UniProtKB/TrEMBL annotation:
Family membership noted in the UniProt record: Belongs to the YciI family.
Protein name: YciI family protein
SUPFAM superfamilies on file: Dimeric alpha+beta barrel
Domain spans labelled YCII-related: 1-110
Protein's organism: Oceaniradius stylonematis
Domain of life where this protein originates: Bacteria
Amino acid sequence: MRYTFLLYSDPADFADMTQEDWAAMQEVYGAYIGALKEAGVFVDTDWLQPVETATTLSLKTGSRTVQDGPFADTKETLGGYFVIDVPDLDVAMAWAEKCPAAKAGKVEIRASAMGGA
């Protein structure tokens, strides 16, 4: 079963990070990706550009509506994701607990509606 981890954090938490801080964070995430790959559960990941670069589009009203930024006005924003393929939610939660994003923000776990690989 495929699960996507949606990684949420407060961008203010990263405002004062130095180049060394960023390098350390990349190392931690690199180790996490390595562990996922070694376990054979890694499918995909991406780190998203800051929320200020987002564009939200809707056709709900019958015509195109475009909004700069995210649709939701919240302090925490979606910063990236991981997709893994594991047997069940319990295993997915175990991997989510190991995700570095869980220590500073939140990891939303969503099962794929299309199943596994």
